[in-house]
Design a protein that fits this description.
Elements lengths: L1 E6 L2 E10 L6 E4 L5 E6 L4 H10 L1 H12 L11 H23 L9 E4 L6 E3 L5 E4 L7 H13 L8 H10 L3 H10 L6
Parallel strand pairs: 2-4, 5-7
Antiparallel strand pairs: 1-2, 3-4, 6-7
Helix pairs in contact: 3-4, 4-5, 4-6
Amino acid sequence: MKKQITLQNKKVVYTIHKSLRARRVRLAVYCGGSVVVTMPRNLKESIVERFIEKQTEWLLAKINFFKQFQGQPIARHGRKDYLKHKDTAHLLAKEKVAYFNQFYGLKINKINVKNHKSRWGSCSRAGNLNFNYKILFLPEKQRDYVIVHELCHLKEFNHSGNFWSLVAQAFPQWRAAKKELKNSALNLY
């Protein structure tokens, strides 16, 4: 369902996606400039509008960021590309996790490589580490940051001060890598 909201005298069109699986409101801006709000089915749409208004600065910054790429071809990574690179990405992820886990000695259940659309990695409470196959195409510093970030979630399942201290033990330059990774988000699309 398409909706429109005015933020700082700019009209923003967004699509609402109601999901049975969603537990919270999620706001996403995609490379074509489309804005999608995913929300739990039972949530009132007025709450979504307030949420968008609170995210005005972030939202307008993302829209402006993607405007600079209008008219330029953006690489699309489809299933064929995923199947071509997933084994190499899996091997790389396993090697990097083994290297960085020397600093931590954490118990890892499985390492998986997936074709995520909006995340570089994730960690489950079962001890599984999941990585986007596109880490293969990241500069080494950013790739290492993603690996260490998810690895540290095995011990600290949050983003507290303890978590970031843990990340810094093996990867002290995490702040710069995180910033660079955020600015290279087009690699996900």
